[in-house]
Design a protein that fits this description.
ACPS, magnesium, alpha+beta, Ribosomal Protein L22, Chain A, EC 2.7.8.7, magnesium ion binding, three-stranded antiparallel β-sheet, two-stranded antiparallel ribbon
């Protein structure tokens, strides 16, 4: 059963401007440890790839927060929701701490899709209840 659906669109240029103004502080505030390692790897290779990555993760976290109906309010914290990927490349949501507990208490699982093109990053998240009430 679907619990909620969230979508978000993010300007890649806006993410680039945030990085330009604040250095990596913005990424460190928004990305979890696993995401941050990938962001730094991409930034070291091609700066734009790192910014695109940051934009897709920001959009996915916004979409996630909409799918669970909380917005960015406790227990939803930026770093407690990571959008990582399986070896196949499929993106997955990995939760931590109170956010993980909150979602487990509701028997939620998530499907996520992210994409970027030119100056736009897009994400969609479907939250499903894995057991009937």
């Amino acid at each position: 059963m679907i619990y909620g659906i969230g979508t978000d669109v993010c300007s890649i240029a806006r993410m680039g401007a945030a990085v330009q103004r604040n250095g990596d502080r913005f990424a460190q505030r928004v990305l979890g440890d696993g995401e941050l390692a990938e962001y730094e790897r991409r930034m070291a290779k091609v700066r734009q790839r790192g910014i695109n990555y940051l934009a897709t993760r920001f959009a996915a976290k916004e979409a996630f927060s909409k799918s669970i109906g909380l917005g960015i309010h406790s227990p939803m914290r930026w770093r407690d929701c990571e959008i990582l990927k399986l070896p196949s490349g499929q993106p997955v949501i990995v939760l931590h701490d109170a956010l993980k507990d909150w979602c487990e208490a509701r028997s939620l699982r998530f499907l996520v899709s992210v994409s970027d093109e030119a100056d736009t990053a897009l994400a969609m998240v479907v939250a499903e209840v894995t057991r009937p009430d």
